[in-house]
Structure prediction request, 150 residues.
Amino acid sequence: MLAAAHAFERFGGYAPCLLCLRQREVYWVAAGMALVALAALRSPGLRALRPWMGLALGLVFLFGAGLAGFHAGVEWKWWPGPAACAAGGGSVAGLDMSGLVEGSLKVQLPSCDDAAWRLAGLSMAGWNALVSLGLAATGVAAWRFGRGRA
Prediction:
């Protein structure tokens, strides 16, 4: 998912909004946890932790699904997004951007409530919610079925 997001940004010209960037953070956390889990599982004394690491990853992806679902709801205008998500606003994550907009460098910040791309009616955030739910279910299944094998 990170590769797809970066490919859309690099080759498709789609700039990420604040909520898009927050969704990426979930994948970076999960990748770090997975690397630690893989290293820990190589140790025979830590094999009993295997199912719990699956559960932890499942919970991270469940959070990611909630975040992506929230973003999709913002795009469908079901609820408002964070104030920092407004396009052309003066701040992003607490940083004052007014000097950049007024100067010779024009910055158009993408809005979180405008889906830049859709496939089968779902935006990138909607697809991310579905993928994250699938990954959460996989992590919970690994925990559930792995407890007896630990």
Q: What stands out?
A: The chain has one domain: 2-146.
